[in-house]
Structure formats: C-alpha cells, structure tokens
Amino acid sequence: MAGAKGFFTDTTLCIGCKACEVACKQWNQLPDDGLLFTGMSYDNTVHLGASTWRHVAFIERPVPLSTQDAGAFSWLFSSDVCKHCVRAGCLESCPTGAIIRTEFDSVYVQPDICNGCGYCIVNCPFGVIDRRSEDGRAWKCTLCYDRLREDMTPACAKACPTESIVFGDLDELRTRARVRVEKLQDAGMREAYLYGEDAASQPGTEGLNAFFLLLDKPEVYNLPPDPAIPTKGVGRSWISMAAAAAGIALMAVGSVFFSKLGGRS
Amino acid sequence: MAECHPVGFRWVMEARERGATIIHVDPRFTRTSAVANIHVPIRAGSDIAFLGGIVRYIIENERYFRDYVVHYTNAPAIVSAEFQDTEDLDGLFGGWDEETGQYHKKAWRYEGADPEPAAGVKESDEEGQPIQHNPFQAGHSDPTLQHPRCVFQILKRHFSRYTPEMVEQTCGIPKSLFLKVAETLCRNSGRERTSAFCYAVGWTQHSMGVQYIRTAAIVQLLLGNIGRPGGGILALRGHASIQGSTDIPTLYNLLPGYLPMPKAKQDKDLATYLARNTSPSGWWGEFPKYFVSLLKAWFGEAATKENGWCYDYLPALTGDHSHMNTVVNMADGGVKGYFVMGENPVVGSMNGPLHRKGLRQLEWLVVRDFSVTETADFWRDAPEIERGEIRTEDIGTEVFFFPAAAHVEKDGAFTNTQRLLQWHYKSVEPPGDAASELDFIYKLGLRLKKLYAEEYGQPRNRPIRDVTWDYPLEGPKREPKAEAVLREINGYTVADGKPVEGFTSLQDDGSTACGCWIYSGCYRDGHNMAARRKPHWEQNWVAPEWAWAWPHNRRLLYNRASADPEGKPWSDRKKLVWWDQEKGEWVGYDTPDFIVKRPPWFHPSKDACGKDTIGGTDPFVMQADGKGWLYAATGLQDGPLPVHYEPQESVVKNPLYGQQCNPERVEWWRKDNPYHRAYDDPRFPYVITTYRLTEHHTAGAMSRWLSWLSELQPEMFCEVSPELAAERGLKNGGWATIRTMRAEIEARVLVTGRMRPLRIKGRLVHQIGLPYHWSTKGLARGDAANDLIGFVADPNVSIQESKAFTGAIEPGRKSRRRSAAISGPPVREIDPKRWQRDLPPARRKPESQHSFKAGESKKEH
Questions:
Q1: Neighbouring residues of B176: CB distance < 8 A, sequence distance ≥ 6
Q2: Model-level pTM?
Q3: Which residues on A lie below 8 Å from B733 (Cβ)?
Q4: CB-CB under 8 Å, A35 with B34
Q5: Helix (H, G, I), strand (E, B) or coil at B410
Q6: I want to staple A209 with a disulfide (CB 3.0 to 4.6 A). Which of A6, B545, B726, B742 is the partner?
Q7: d(Cα B99, Cα B119) in Å, to the nearest integer?
Q8: Do B418 and B234 meet the contact criterion of CB atoms below 8 Å apart?
Q9: What is the pLDDT of residues B737-781, one digit of tens each?
Q10: What phi and psi, each to the nearest 5 degrees, are found at residue B486?
Q11: CA distances from B412 to B156, B216, B298, B358 (A)
Q12: Which residues face A101 on adjacent strands?
C-alpha cells in the first residue's frame, strides 16, 4: 500500500454536501469550531484550522459557467484540505521533528512530539495548519494515516457521494486529472484547469500531493495564486548570507589593513 | 435533490457525466441548480401552469409518442357528453355541488363505462351497477384520436390556453427559457431516448399536490416515458423508509399493501367491503385474496370463513382522521392520548403553536426519539411558555419519553423510492434503555394481551386477545426477531407454514396468510431476499439480485410498456422486456410486470372479469382498463384533469380562471388558524417557500443535537434577494422578522443572488426562502418556520400546503413570537370573507366538509 498517495479534488463534481467535513470530524473525533452564522453563503466553518481539516468553500459569483444556462450567476463548491506539499513549509520549519513525511509521502504531525512552538503556522503558504487553543499543539489533516495503515481510504474520500474527492496513487491521480481537464475542455468548459498538480505548475511548493481542478482563479477559492514555502529560499539565503558575511569580514580586515596603512603614513 | 438527497444525487451526476441534460426547476438557485445544465426559477405554487404549458407544447407541436399514446394510454377513450371542462365553467369542472362544496364525480365518467379507480376515492354504487367498467372493452374509443369527446381532444382543449406567454405571466419563467426546456424534454423522449422526472415535497405540499403529480404523469405518458428504462416519475421520499411506511402504512385510511381501511357507514360486513373494493376489471379483481390473507396473518386460527375472517375485528373509519384534523380535534379536547414516534410535529408540521395547544389538552403523550424533542418538552420551554402566556403548572398532560434505537442499532428493512427493500443489520446494541420500535410495540402488545386476557374478558376485546403476536426473541435485550416479521409480511401457507412464492400464490379461502401482498416474495423459500448483496458486475445491468423490489422483484413498474404493441422493444437502446415467441412468454432483463404467458395479441372477451380483462396491449395492469390515465375519470376529488389554481394565499390573481383556488381544498376556519386575503393582501406582499438543507434532517431531532452538523448550519436564517434586501432594508448577517397571520418568527438574514425576483406581468414578485429545521432545543437553535403556516390541505390525500404562502418581512429582531393560537394574530385581522377566493357563484367551501370531528369542534369558536 505504501507509495506516494494523495487527493485529486475535482470541484466540477462537488455538490457542496459537506459529507467530507463531517466524515473527517467523525473519524478524527474533532471538536466543532463554534456555532457561528457567518452570512457567507452556506459556509459557516469559514476556513481550515486546527479542528476543521476538510472545508467546503461556497462561492457565489455573478459570472455564468460556460456549460450552464442559469443566468449571469454560478455557485462554485470546493472541498479544501491540507495539500501535503512536495516541499512542505510546516515540515521544513519544525524545530522538534514533530512533523514528518510518511511512507505515503504525506505530511504528518506527531502530536506526542509537537511542543506548540507555532513555526509551522507561519510557514504554511496555504494557512492550513493551526494550533488548538485548548492544548496549544498544532493540528492538520493526517491524510487519515491510521486508515492508510489499515489499507482503508481516507474518511473524506470514502464519504464523498459524487467522487469529487478521489484518493489514490499520485501518478494515477495526475493522469486521471489531466484526462478530466481535457474532457471538460472538449465539452466546452474552457475555464477548467488543474491547480498544483506538479512542480512545473507550482514551483514554490514543487507540487501538491492534494491538488485541485478549479473553474476560476485560485484567489476566488481562497487559494494563493503562486504559493511558495519560505524555507524554499533557505539555500539561497545561506549563500547570500555567507557572501554578506564574507564581505563584512573582508571589509573589516580591509579597514584594519587600510587604517594600519594610514597609521603608518 | 442535491440538497436533500445527496447520496442519490450521485446517479444524477453520473448521468450528467454521460451526457444527460439536467434541468432544475426551483424558486431558488440551490446546490442542485449549481450543478444542473439549466436552472429554471419559478414562482412557488405555479408548477401546474408550467407543466400544463409543456403538455400544450407537446400536443400543439405533435411531439407526443403517437404509437405509445394510442395503445397504452386512455387518449382514445370517449368521455360522456355530460362532461364540462374548466374552459366552459371558468375554472370549475361540471358536477360542482354548491351545497356540499364537492364534485359529483359521475359527471366526469367515460361514455358507457365506469371504471374502478386503482387508488383514491372509491364511490359507493348507490346509483346502481354501471354497465361496463372498461371503455375499451365496451368499444367506446377512437384510435384516430379525432372524436371531439375523446380524452386526447379534451386534453388538447383543456390546456390550449397554457401558452408560453401564459407560462411567463403565471410562473415568471421567460418564454425563451420555457421553450428551451420543453424542446429539450421532447428531444430526449421517443423511441430511442427517455426522460425522467424527480420530485419531492416541493410538488406535493400544495392544496392541489396530487394534481401536480398528475400533470407530470400526463407529460410522461404523452412522451412515452413510463414503463421504460430511464423514464418515470420518481418521488424522492423524505426519510430512509418513508416509502416503506406508506406500503405498510402509518396512514389512517390504509391497510398494508394499499388496501383501503373499512368505512363504518358503507362497509357493514365483509361481503360489502369486498364488493366495494374488488374491481370487476384489471388486477384489483384479485382484491379478496390479498385481504383475506391479511386477516389470516393477523388473526391466525381465530379467523375462519364463518366469522368472515374476523373482519369485524378491524376498526372502521368514521371520518377524516388525518394529521391536521386530529390535531384540531386534540386542541378542542377530543383526543385522549397520542403516540409520537420518530416525528417532531411541533417543529416539522404546520402551525406549531396549534399543535402545542393540542398537546396541552391531552391526558397523556408518548414520545419515542433519540433526544428530548420540542414535542416531548412542549410543556417546559415552548415560545408561549417563555413569554409567560402559558404556565407549565397549568398543563395536565402526562408525558412519557422513551429513548429510541437508531437504525444502526436494530435490524430491519428500508424501502426506498424505487420500492427496493434493503435489509440492514444491527451493528451495535442500543445504549441504555433505548430500544427499537419493533421491540416497543411488541412488548406493549404483550402487556395489552395480558391485561385483556386477565381483566377485560368481554367479547368486544377479542381482537386484542386473538391477534397473532408470537415473534421469537433474540439478543441480549431479548428483542423480537425482525426477520420473523418479514417472514409474516411475505406470507405462508397456513397448513405447513412454508413461505409463499409471491402474491400470485395467495388465496381467499383462508389457506394462505400474508402481512402485505405487494411485499409477498421478499422471503421466498425462507431466504431474506432483501439482504441479497450480489455485486452489479456479477449480473445484468438491472441488477435483479441486489436486494428485492416489490412487486415480485420488478425493478420497473409497468415495464410491458417498454415494448411496442407487438411485444418487440421500441428500440434496441431502450430494450428491457419483450415477448419471446418461442417460449410463449414475456422475458427480459427485468421481471416482466405483466401476466407472463399473455401474448401481445390477446383480446379479452366482452364478458371477462378481473385479470382476464387485461389485454395484450394493456401495460397498466392495476388500472381497470389497463391504460395509463391522461384523464382520470374517477378516483380524484378535485377534477379529472389538473388545473392551475393559486395557493390558498397568493400574491397574484389566478391568471387563467375566475376560480382562484382549488375549490375542493380543505380549510380549517378557526381563530387559531387565520388565513390571508386570497391575493394581493397588502399586509403580506411576498411569496414564502420552505425547504430543507443538506446539513440538517427535517425537524432536526437527528441533527440539531450533533455538534458536527450544527456548526455547519448553526442558526435559523431566511434567504432573500439583494433586491428585496434593498427594498426592506435587510442586512446580510443581520436579523429579520417574518410574519403571517398565524405567527411571527425571527431569523438571521442571508442576502444572496441565488434568490431572484421574478417579473410577472411587469411586476416584480419577491420570494423568501425559509429552511424549517430549527426550534428551541438542541445545539443549533432558532425559530420554527412552520409556525408561520396555516392548516390547508389537498382534498385527495390531506397533505398540507407549506411550499407556497404569503408573508411579510421587516428588518430587526422585533419578534415577540406571537401566535394566533395563543395571543391572537400578530397582524390586525380584516374580515377574510370580504375577499372573494372562489368563483362566484361557487361560494367558499362549506366549513366542515372533510373534517368530521373538526366540524363539531368549531362550535367553541
């Protein structure tokens, strides 16, 4: 069963039922996020967080879908989740080693090691991971690690009635997704495209293990258009820092040398 | 459908992916609209005008499936010269009786024939035996469809004014959009293609709810979409086994398998009852076999030929005991005790305050549910108690609350909308004292039997003592074995107790017993057929070995219609059942819903009776003439053809007829149930419709106590368009008060482009959307939308009108939750009788027409 696994979330098949949100909370026994009426369409959980690991966005747009006859309007649904990035900002910034990459290529927070420092939170370009106020530790989607170990499908994908969330081997998912986009384009849905399916399309993360088929700009779905993990620049930072340090040292040595020269003169 | 049946909707999505066009007709843009190909916004309560427009389009443009219509529907049947249409009488059919406020249905009969209806109203034969039951047998038909009084011509004339322009003016659907829908539907029907209609209570909960479905049936019959794969009219039921609770009914006027409950006045003895219900033609000629087998199952050895199989043990109906009548009767002190199981009527039914008024008059109330619902706690924290209008200490009702087992905590079968019985097994024991309904009823029955055996020895108590009540017990809680009940439902031969093969094995001589004839065969050979789980890749595409469907494991009703009159499939693409000449029988992928050995060329003799009257080209075997009824000559209270009437409360005058509302609708004129003006009531200028959301389940007892579901829709809200919000000063996320004559409620405001005002005759009509899940208890709370709605009902099935009514909305949290049932109407009363609702001279309906008890109770008001 091991090998790179992930999600392909096809938003054109999502019916906004939120079964994924509920299945995730039930399987992982997560608390509610508070009973808050937001007035934001049918979205009352607002965003991913420490106790919401799947979140369905409801987007009401005054723009028609190219394949629909429903006036100048459309309603988009998209089930968001941790992307399990190929280069994961949270993992790379974790000072305790609590966040690890598993045998399924997923990014997993070990709750018994996490000390709640919060570095991971600022290092996630998607705003996925968060600390739970009751215990201070960081939490996010585990790709149902416990279920994968038992050869079971993650709870959200299992509960999805329309196969909008597909779980599987990443290679297969990528092929499936590309075929799907082509099919949709051919059927006249010109706006369909993939978000984060590989390193070429999203160099800042080097690709996502949970990627999406979207119908509008990423910002519309509350996704960053060009995400990059801060630690991606660490190598370059080190080089420039080394260069700077070298320069400063050179200058220091130089100034001493020249002052000596000057002193002599 | 995506909103309320997301799991079933996966098949719609799959059809869409395979190229099907999904059309969604709804006042609101919902989750279904979001993924449909076409969304058609419609004014709530105007669907007959819309569907009638499609009927006209099909006929005028000759898009009907002619061979199907001529052979399989009653289009050629000739109607009596006496018949007068709504076109002649400005919205009334002939036969209207001003005094009783009801129709004389004989005015709609066929020429020279008087068929028994397969269901619905069965009239007593006071006027003597009709000459013939089947118009086709009697020779009164015109296959050229040209006779001016043939059903086809009557239908054509009846809907002739339902033009695209009229649809636009009535429903608010632009002409171009309407034409696109009509054309798409026609293009997807015929020999090679079929279309299906799916509907739910958005169609049924109207004062002409049955006629909504009738209109869809007419469309589908004209297009040849009934009895063929991919066709049909699919009722999406509101709970997992609502279909099951209709088949084995929780309805007051039915016995299992749609056998009518005896009526006290007419059905004096078994012979009369059987004579009144056995159809001289068609499959209902078998009626006595099913009824006697039922009595044999219920009363076992006590049921003998001599005592009429214990027919006298059955209670008989003395009037209308449907839900709303019972509640009204209760409010007037006419009901002693009440069992509420798996229902939360003070939230889920109309006029909650009136329900609570009823509950306060009871001696005792039993509620079985997962949590202490608003119905169980009506005496403690209802709005009127919170306001101090009613004091708990003044309520004398004794309330018993029993914790109920959930579906995973008990064995049993779910029957879904396609009549599929699927068995489910208990996966955990119910916690604490929680038990299944089966266990509760069974043990209650045992106690009653003991009580009646020991203390009440009178002969009149024999029914309780004689009823068969002997299911084996199992499990740690010693619960009755659910499969034993299924076995009884299947039926068995009395002599050896062996399960019967199916309903064709049942007899009327007491040799067989059967709990529900249509389910007969579900426990064939002693196997639980409903528990079959053969995967689809190991059988044909109909998957006949997955679970079991009634009747006789037929997956598609009336599937004889999938073949042409000669018995050959209409097309290879839509092949399902056909006549095999070599074998001399009907064969196919599905179990044929026909007499297997009856050849297509069979013509019944003139003096044939019962099922011998079913000809080889009569697919609709339950109908007295074997045809699909475009025109219902009998069986309905409110007319042989559907008519667009406005709801009880509307914002517009009926654009088609002088008669505003369904003349046969049931009303309850009481101070605690006031109505608005019929139309254009300046106090209530907006259309309101109610509905469910995916996140909650009906009255909320299964969802509002769960944090995971409650956080998804945490509060009562109303949906309004940006235009209405601007007009009324409503702010997104703020508060609004919604008001009718019955009550006022408050709700959070959701301003959304998904609500669109409609343009009707140059006027902007606003609609307000109200989900109805919340009330005073649970985690997620809010006011109950159903408090706003009055009691009004369809005359055929007593369904309430909750999907279209009028109301007012204003910004702010001003609601004091006043209700007419307690403190008088929240809005000043204007004499409602000053506004004409019904066509003069047809006066408003006499008050107590359908309400036996309610009529008596009105004296107090």
A1: none
A2: 0.93
A3: 37-39
A4: no
A5: coil
A6: A6
A7: 26
A8: yes
A9: 999 999 999 999 999 999 999 999 889 999 999 999 999 999 999
A10: -60, -35
A11: 48, 33, 20, 33
A12: A107
